[in-house]
Amino acid sequence: MSDERPQPIPWAENLERLALKAVMLSTDDLPALGAFLQELEDLKSQLEASPLPEADTLVAELLTVTNRLVLQEIPAAVQALELLGQGVALLQHLAAGRPPQEVPEEWQTYRRLAAELLGAPPPETAGAAPAQAAPGGAVFEDPELVANFLTEAAEHLEGIETRLVHLEQHPDDLEAVNAIFRPFHTIKGVAGFLHLEQIQAAGHELESLLEKVRSGRQQVTPELVDVILFGVDLLREMLTDLQEALAASRPLRTFDLGPLEARIAAVTDTPSSRPRLGEILVQDGELSPGEVEAALRHQQEEEPGRPLGEILVEQGKVAPQKVARALVQQLSEAKTGEAAPAAIKVDLAKLDTLVNLMGELVIVQSQVRQNPVVLTAADQKLVRDLGQMSRITTELQKISMSLRMVPIGATLRRMVRLVRDLSHKTGKLVHLELEGEDTEIDRNMVEAIYDPLVHLVRNAVDHGLEPPEERQAAGKPPEGRLVLRAYHKGGNVILDIEDDGRGLNRAAILAKARERGLVGPGELTPSQIDHLIFEPGFSTAAQVTEVSGRGVGMDVVKQTVESLRGKIDIVTRPGAGTRFSLRLPLTLAIIDGLVVRLGAERYILPTVAVRETLRPAREDCFTVEGKGELIRVRQLLLPLVRLHRLLGLAGAGPDPWDSLVLVVEHEGEARAFLVDEILGKQEVVIKSLGQLLQNRPGLAGGTILGDGRVGLILDVGGLFALAG
Q: Hey, which of 130, 318, 370, 377 would disulfide with 706, CB 3.0 to 4.6 Å?
């Protein structure tokens, strides 16, 4: 028997174009489906000149599936795309002279899909046995793939929640519908690949519901949004179980999809208000009104429930490509045209190591430049080379630090679902606005600020905003306004949580604080009264509710923000609202500071806390009994803090008029820090002080200065507490 293979078939070149289009197919890209359909028609014509039984059958089936996809008659659109891809692959095998006997598994998989989609009888031969699921439906042949799926699916669900709330407010935004459909499609497809049947089934139910919305057969209503959010919660619970099962190597739990299916069935009876397909075809001049009316009568009398587009194509009134274009117009899909940036996944441990090594490189580079031998060198080439090295090192440091930076938008969008649920729970109308979603912040900071944001948003809705009737009585619109705003300012990231509600009741706050013995009978400034709400357990709520008042979790907010070297400012107006501003550093790895000298030691003071520097006149320095030393700065008397004495250095330091004073602010208070000299301003890499010194009051960390010496980074809040 000869081993020679048949020569390649003449229509192979046409097939290559078809394969290229098959790779780019998407269920929501009707123009691409139309182009694919045209290539199939061309291939069918080529086959007439070079017949091949297996190829003829394949192309006929692919034409049927593609036509039904264009007309949106196949609910399982994802499986249909898979069938098209596998069918084209089989055609390529045939074109290369490989008969079905050489690729039995591929043909078996294709026939199984064709049986499901086209109603053909299943193949008699079983072929290769499918992968067996572990007990409980868990298949963990590749744990790394499962872990990646968990991460990506969680991100998809967060994005879905945000877009759902937007869709509820803008039910005619069909691009939002498509943006919600695509991540469900991705979750379902990957879950099927990983043999996660329950996640795949839940995703299929939600995908099918959204498919009805996209095709104009279902309206967007608050009830429909509730159902999809219910499905999101169910998928999130499944993902949590999958994560736990992966870690413990146990079977997956069995979830009941009945409640989800019942809720979907309850909302799928609402008629659509979308533009009709027939109207679009008439407007485009493809059909006359009489032809559309005749087709509609045929649909109502003989084939109720059958899509109008399919009837028109079958009657020869319009080509499938024309129907595809009309469906595109009906769906009003607006492509953004923005290409996603190329990206790869990097282990966070490697990223942190890179950033740490870059910090060390910056320190060593500074040490080299300040070496006495280099400083006295007369070699101009060496000076130029060192300058070039400095520029490259600085650029590398910026790039390495930017790798840690992520947009804060994902964290802000997680508040959308929270606000929606709180709005329904409290009976209040809330309009949430997100600003500055592209603002970047250290990834570690993003994780840390989530809880503070939850507390502030919860209390803004529950305690800050009034019920609709109370707002109307006060001359306000019934819908309250809540703004989450992020922006860069002065080398920091500012997060504003602003509402237009009642504002803080300072009289009630002060009375409650005195009742609890938190303050004495003396006078407090408005800012000091406002900051009383950060005392542990402090609340002015008349009754404890699930959300309670301004004091719930506020001590957690303060502790977290201070642990991040940040500060909180409060601006409130009675009856007009409250704004909490969280000022946070861009990154936890580098700090912008003033290098000051105290005796023989050098310290770094964060520049964000320094308001101004001055050398006071002798007549501006006072000693007041009971209050100690004071410095007059712009007609204000500020307590003088001798850092030498506070930090346990030898001597009390020079007289203020012979030295420098830094006016430093913290939580609305200002004090004057006495230092010997300001050596400069620079960015320093923060180093841990170790176990012995990490909890030392007044110290936030350390760094290595350019001369190789260690400089301690001062904690302003701790210094204020030590000074009393």
A: 370
Dihedral pair phi/psi, residue 524, rounded to 5°: -120, 145
Residue whose C-alpha is closest to residue 658's, from 641, 634, 675: 675
Q: Using a CB cutoff of 8 Å and minimum separation of 24, what contacts does 425-428 make?
A: 425/546, 425/547, 426/461, 426/462, 426/467, 426/547, 427/467, 427/468, 428/461, 428/465, 428/466, 428/467, 428/468, 428/480
SS3 3: coil
Q: Are 383 and 421 in contact (CB under 8 A)?
A: no
Q: Which of the pair, 385 or 20, is modelled with greater confidence?
A: 385
Binned at pLDDT 50, 70 and 90, residue 321 comes out as low
Bridge partners (DSSP) listed for residue 669: 666
Pair of tokens at residue 422: 């709180």
297 burial via Cβ count (<10 Å: 0-12, 13-18, 19+):
exposed
Strand 628-633 and strand 636-642: the pairing is: antiparallel
Residue 387, classified by CB atoms within 10 Å of its CB into exposed (0-12), middle (13-18) or buried (19+), is exposed
Pairing of the two strands 440-442 and 699-704: unpaired
- pLDDT averaged over the chain? 76
Beta strands 601-606 and 710-714 are parallel
Q: Mean pLDDT check: name the lowest of 41-45, 684-688, 715-719.
A: 684-688
366-394 pLDDT, tens digit per residue, is 778 777 787 787 788 888 888 888 888 87
Alpha carbon 571 to its chain's center: 28
- Residue 333, judged by CB atoms within 10 A of its CB (0-12, 13-18, 19+), counts as middle
Tell if the pTM clears 0.85, that is, is over it: no
DSSP string, 109-139: HHHHHHHHHH-PPPPSS--SPPPPPPGGG--
